[in-house]
């Protein structure tokens, strides 16, 4: 029997039907050679080239430096970094975390101040102005309430005088023997009702102006004051944190915390200074506006009351003209659409 000659895997180069070299066996050949390399080979790169029939392809094996018995391969080529996708849920979670931390610090600062353990920043001049403003607001609200009560009572009196004047006028026509007497009383009550309506217009104008001053202008300033007080609490809370960190040890773990605390403290200090400046400016403008508004309204109120009880109808009407107050004529309805045409 003929013995088959041993075949070396390196000599077997299969050819496909179209005459091209089959690359799969070439890769298998390179893999076998790669396994046969000694484990202690200290080459940074080993290149093995196999030539086939008119083939220009080369098989390259890259061997990196050995580390701990394992080889690490260095891959060359462009590196593509994927853009980090921001998660809205993570952003909201971070905002909630910051808000919770800030709320905790502020609550701790408020409790420590009430218990007398924590220190607070005080601007004596500004705090005094704020206290005066709040006290004046309560007094103006009381004046406003009393003026509204006076307006309601005056309206009821004017309404009664008008009805009484109509009753006297009716009796003047039906009672011939008391025609003049009923007529005088009817004219008097109607005149009093007319003057009362004029006074009522002046009082209502006074109420509207004081209401705007108290519930809009002063209230707007007090909202800024509340923002200032919140900024002051935050400033003191982060100031306390920074002081506590500075009193502790300084090492590699605490230095980043101190630096971050210093940054937050500086940011809240700038916010506190800005709010304090805003409150000072608003208090100044409010004082100027308050004096001007109350001066005019108090003059109007005084002149109208004095002219009414003095029976000086001309002076009462002149007071309303001076302040450009237009009264609605009683008993006159709005013009119809035909009259407007």
What do you see in this structure?
There is one protein chain. The protein is rod-shaped and about 110 Å long. 14% of the residues are buried. 68% of the residues lie in helices and 1% in strands. The chain has 341 residues and is an all-alpha fold.
End-to-end distance: 132 Å
Spatial strand arrangement across the major sheet: 1-2
Rounded Rg: 48 Å
Along the chain, the helix and strand elements come as HEEHHHHHH
Mean pLDDT: 77
Share of helical residues? 55-70%
- Largest sheet properties: 2 strands, antiparallel
Q: What is the count of helical runs?
A: 7
What's the SSE blueprint?
Elements: H1 23-36, E1 66-67, E2 70-71, H2 88-114, H3 124-174, H4 179-247, H5 254-309, H6 313-322, H7 337-340
Antiparallel strand pairs: 1-2
Question: Can you summarize this structure?
Answer:
It is found in: Golgi apparatus, trans-Golgi network membrane. One of its GO terms (molecular function) is phosphatidylinositol-4-phosphate binding. With about 350 residues, the chain is an all-alpha fold.
């Amino acid at each position: 029997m003929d013995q088959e000659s041993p075949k070396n895997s390196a000599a077997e180069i299969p050819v496909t039907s179209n005459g091209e070299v089959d690359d799969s066996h070439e890769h298998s050949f390179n893999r076998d050679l790669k396994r046969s390399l000694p484990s202690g080979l200290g080459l940074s790169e080993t290149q093995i080239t196999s030539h086939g029939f008119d083939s220009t392809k080369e098989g390259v094996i890259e061997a990196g430096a050995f580390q701990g018995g394992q080889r690490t391969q260095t891959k060359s080529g462009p590196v593509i970094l994927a853009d980090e996708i921001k998660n809205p849920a993570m952003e909201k979670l971070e905002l909630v975390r910051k808000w919770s931390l800030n709320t905790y610090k502020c609550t701790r600062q408020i409790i420590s101040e009430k218990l007398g353990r924590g220190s607070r920043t005080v601007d004596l001049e500004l705090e005094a102005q704020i206290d005066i403003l709040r006290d004046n607001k309560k007094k103006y609200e009381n004046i406003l309430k009393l003026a509204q009560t006076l307006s309601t009572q005056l309206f009821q009196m004017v309404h009664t005088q008008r009805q009484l004047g109509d009753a006297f006028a009716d009796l003047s026509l039906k009672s011939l023997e008391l025609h003049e007497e009923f007529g005088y009383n009817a004219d008097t009550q109607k005149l009093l009702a007319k003057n009362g309506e004029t006074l009522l217009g002046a009082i209502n104008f006074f109420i509207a102006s004081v209401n705007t001053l108290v519930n809009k202008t002063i209230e707007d300033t007090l909202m800024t004051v509340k923002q200032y007080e919140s900024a002051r609490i935050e400033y003191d809370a982060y100031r306390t944190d920074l002081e506590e960190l500075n009193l502790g040890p300084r090492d590699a773990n605490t230095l980043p915390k101190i630096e971050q605390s210093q940054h937050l403290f500086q940011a809240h200090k700038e916010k506190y200074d800005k709010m304090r400046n805003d409150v000072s400016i608003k208090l100044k403008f409010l004082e100027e506006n308050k004096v001007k508004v109350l001066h005019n309204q108090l003059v109007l109120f005084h002149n109208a009351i004095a002219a009414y009880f003095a029976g000086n109808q001309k002076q009462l009407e002149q007071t309303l003209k001076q302040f450009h107050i237009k009264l609605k004529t009683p008993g006159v309805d709005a013009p119809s659409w035909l009259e407007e045409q």
